[in-house]
Each structure stands twice: as structure tokens, then as C-alpha cells.
Amino acid sequence: MANPPITIQFHELSIEQALHRLFENYDVFFFYTRGNGKSVRLASVWVYPQGQGKKFAPTSPPIAEHANEMPQNTTDADPVKRASAIANLVEQQGSGATEIVQNALTDPDERIRIHALDAALRAQIDLPPDTIIDLAQNDASAKIRSIALVALFKRSEDGLIKSADMLETLVTAQKDNDPEVSELATQLMKSLEESLTEPSEQESQEFQNN
């Protein structure tokens, strides 16, 4: 957030109340810590433009300080350092690191792709469905294909991916050369077919009323 100069006075307000009033037109995250005496104190405040806070993942002060000490070099020659940098950026920036994640998902090193995909899913970054489908069908790593299949299935349960697209992806995955991936696809297919044949709650109520 920019630092516009302001002059303001509050009387008989706690620091939290004053901050709430000061930033009432912004998205604000308050971070509290509990001391040894179990007393709670305000440790940090994150302020974002209104409507933009959901795009970021606030990081507690110790983590943020550690992150600032180490350069977040996502192109380091050392795969371990690249993976760590990507994971840190995703934790700090949330969906703001989407482009970094998408680039990492094409990294030639399997470990980088696994770390990037796992971090993105844990941070609930909204990766394009086509990206996840491509990983499920074409990535050279069987582990990544499995992770992508499960991620797609969860999205289909949430209605974020069409059932037809999910079915097509699972049909392809059932022919996967890796037996664990093909078996996973078969299990997910059964679950999907069961969910598609189960009557909705509304249909069940209508049937009972009739």
C-alpha cells in the first residue's frame, strides 16, 4: 500500500479500535500473538487496497524476516533452492504468485514441479483448469499426474470443472502407463459416476413429498 501523509487524532480508543477506524476503507489483517503469560497483543497489521486482500497471504513476522534475509531466486541453478524460493513466494503472495507457479510447472526438474503444484494447491491458487488437465495427462512425472488428477476431482466436486471434462480426463488417465495412476483414475471414475447417479437433495425431497 502507498504511504499517503495524513493527520488524525483519536481519543479514548485502543490501538486496535483506532486502526480499524483508520483503515475502514481498506482490507486489513490483524496478527495477534500470545505471550508466556497468555496475554494477547497485536504484533502486526497488513493493509491492502479494498478488495485486494484476498489475493495475498499474510506472513507472520518471523517468516517474513527470514524471507527478507534470503533472496527469492526462482531461477537458481540449485533445484532445492528454486523449490524453496517458489514455496516461500507462494506462502507470502498467495494468488499473486500465480505466474511464478505456472512457470515452475514447466521446469525440467520434477522436484520443482511437485513443490510448485503442491504449494499452489495448498494456497488454493486458482490455476486454469486446462493447466491441471495438461499436467494430469502429459506430465512426465507419475506423481504429478496423480496429484493433478486428485486436484481436478476436488474441483469437479465443487462445480469448478465440468463433469464431462473430468470424465474425459479420467478415461485418458485409466490408460496411463503407470499402474498407480491408472488405478487412481479408476477409483476416481467410480466415485464420479456414483456422484452423478445420486439424486440431488431437492430431487430427494420432491420424491418424498410425492
3D architecture notes:
The protein is elongated. About 5% of the residues have low confidence. It contains ten helices and two strands, in the order H-E-E-H-H-H-H-H-H-H-H-H. The chain is mainly alpha-helical and 210 residues long. Strand 1 and strand 2 form a beta hairpin. The chain folds into three domains: 41 residues, no CATH class; 71 residues; 83 residues, no CATH class.
Structure characteristics:
210 residues; single chain
Which helices and strands, and how do they pair?
Elements lengths: L14 H8 L3 E9 L5 E10 L11 H9 L9 H15 L4 H7 L5 H13 L6 H10 L3 H16 L5 H11 L5 H19 L3 H9 L1
Antiparallel strand pairs: 1-2
Helix pairs in contact: 3-5, 4-5, 5-7, 6-7, 7-8, 7-9, 8-9
Task: Describe the structure in brief.
The protein has helices at 15-22, 61-69, 79-93, 98-104, 110-122, 129-138, 142-157, 163-173, 179-197, 201-209; strands spanning 26-34, 40-49. With 210 residues, the chain is mainly alpha-helical.
